[in-house]
């Protein structure tokens, strides 16, 4: 493999001494130089001229380092080590003055974490989820408002509960309200309460979730579904730390931390005039993104075994379940699970309840799972990608999203040329309007 000239080697040695093992990249995110220690950490040779996104991210959908550098921003992310989703490297990336990029695998900051981790009711061996847990632990103690972004079934309420339990408000109440579950008139009363006589049937003062969460945490699920008129009222609660019940004349002081969640892009909702920009900025001081289950396939067997153990212990399915046969696990690991962890649990409940054996077998699973097809309509999360979509197409869609529709930046993120990207976009029917395919995925 080609190596730098002696003077460059001395510069790289000095760089490695100061910041640890590092890669130097050009404007196209190709590797220009490799400092000592990088290959040992990665576990394989690193050729000069290779695409850094391909070296660091492989075929994974999430490419935070490449996305940040393609946009000219610094970044820090945990990257799976050698494709192993159970161990990862702490990677830091910075644009260099005058062009070029520096990606640092800082020795002192590297965490190689192996095996499953349980965290406030959530279990994972995924590097991405372990990073979520790290963020939660870091921000929970301070009273930031937090926005949790994730598809249906990824565990957004569990994250909110963990934030509450790790905060100084843990002894206070935790209230949860789904903003999509009620019509606007009932939602207003549920959220803000109402005074006696406010409407027909209001025979007494009733506290809403905001007041009931005083001294604790209020979790607003599907906050993007909140009607505009109620958004204004919620903004006033945040700004004044008071709540005015429906029909009330006197504002009531409240001390509430708000954690909200959505499967939609609030930025996109603001652009479409469906969400207030001022409220969005108030809610998303700290954004947390939950990866879908299809991006952490190593968690499927871990979660499946856990759910089966719970069914047996709690008698949920009317009898003991000894475990899952290997062929059933294999089918589960190949299924896209657009309904995420919730769908996985539903599938296993179905198999455990209807199976004739103490063991969950492949033939006990729903037909869609056995055949590896897309999920039935009743289980599909509406925001998820199509079950039949290939991994390559999904990666291109994700890159276009994170590049804001820019094909040049998307090509950098993917580690391919613009010509190759264009050819793939045409192949997948994405070439007509890249802006359309870069819709609403950002927090």
Write the layout of secondary structure elements.
Elements: H1 6-19, E1 22-25, E2 31-34, H2 38-42, H3 52-57, H4 64-70, E3 75-81, E4 84-95, E5 101-104, E6 117-119, E7 122-124, H5 127-139, E8 146-149, H6 156-165, E9 174-178, H7 184-192, H8 209-212, E10 217-221, H9 228-240, E11 242-243, E12 252-253, E13 257-262, H10 266-271, H11 277-283, E14 286-289, H12 298-314, E15 323-324, H13 326-334, H14 340-354, E16 359-360, H15 367-370, H16 391-402, H17 407-414, H18 418-427, H19 434-437
Parallel strand pairs: 8-13, 8-14, 9-10, 10-13, 15-16
Antiparallel strand pairs: 1-2, 1-5, 3-4, 4-5, 6-7, 11-12
Helix pairs in contact: 4-17, 12-14, 16-17, 17-18
Describe the structure.
The protein has about 450 residues and is an alpha/beta fold. It has four domains: about 5-110, PAS domain (Beta-Lactamase), CATH 3.30.450.20; about 125-290, 3-Layer(aba) Sandwich (Rossmann fold), CATH 3.40.50; about 295-380, Helicase, Ruva Protein, domain 3; about 390-435. It is built from 19 helices and 16 strands. The protein is globular. It starts with 5 loop residues before the first helix and ends in a 6-residue tail after the last helix.
């Amino acid at each position: 493999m080609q190596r730098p000239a002696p003077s460059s080697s001395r510069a790289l040695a000095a760089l490695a001494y100061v910041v640890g093992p590092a890669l130097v990249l050009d404007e196209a995110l190709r590797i220009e130089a490799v400092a000592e220690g990088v290959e040992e950490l990665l576990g394989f040779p690193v050729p000069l001229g290779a695409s850094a996104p391909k070296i660091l991210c492989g075929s994974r959908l999430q490419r935070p380092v490449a996305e940040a550098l393609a946009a000219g921003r610094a970044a820090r992310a945990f990257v799976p080590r050698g494709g192993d989703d159970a161990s990862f490297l702490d990677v830091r990336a910075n644009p260099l003055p005058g062009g070029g990029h520096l990606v640092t695998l800082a020795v002192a900051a590297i965490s190689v974490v192996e095996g499953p981790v349980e965290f406030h009711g959530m279990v994972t061996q995924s590097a991405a989820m372990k990073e979520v847990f790290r963020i939660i632990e870091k921000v929970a103690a301070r009273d930031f408002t937090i926005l949790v972004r994730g598809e249906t079934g990824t565990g957004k309420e569990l994250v909110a509960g963990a934030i509450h339990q790790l905060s100084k408000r843990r002894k206070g109440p935790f209230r949860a309200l789904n903003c999509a579950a009620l019509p606007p008139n009932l939602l207003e009363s549920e959220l803000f309460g109402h005074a006696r006589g406010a409407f027909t049937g209001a025979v007494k003062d009733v506290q809403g979730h905001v007041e009931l969460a005083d001294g604790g945490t209020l979790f607003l699920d599907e906050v993007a579904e909140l009607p505009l008129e109620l958004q204004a009222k919620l903004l006033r609660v945040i700004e004044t730390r008071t709540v005015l019940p429906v029909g009330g004349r006197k504002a009531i002081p409240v001390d509430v931390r708000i954690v909200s969640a959505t499967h939609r892009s609030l930025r996109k909702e603001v652009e479409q005039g469906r969400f207030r920009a001022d409220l969005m900025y108030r809610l998303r001081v700290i954004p947390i993104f939950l990866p879908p289950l299809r991006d952490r396939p190593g968690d499927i067997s871990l979660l499946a075994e856990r759910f089966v153990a719970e069914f047996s212990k709690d008698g949920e399915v009317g009898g003991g379940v000894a475990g899952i046969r290997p062929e059933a696990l294999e089918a589960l690991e190949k299924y896209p699970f657009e309904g995420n962890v919730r769908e996985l649990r539903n599938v296993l409940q179905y198999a455990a309840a209807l199976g004739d054996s103490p063991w969950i077998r492949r033939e006990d699973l729903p037909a869609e799972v056995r055949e590896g097809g897309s999920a039935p309509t009743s289980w599909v999360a509406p925001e998820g990608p199509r079950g039949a979509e290939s991994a390559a197409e999904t990666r291109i869609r994700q890159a276009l999203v994170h590049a804001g529709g820019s094909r040049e930046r998307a090509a950098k993120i993917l580690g391919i040329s613009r010509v190759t990207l264009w050819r793939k976009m045409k192949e997948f029917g994405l070439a007509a309007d890249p802006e359309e395919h870069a819709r609403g995925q950002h927090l």
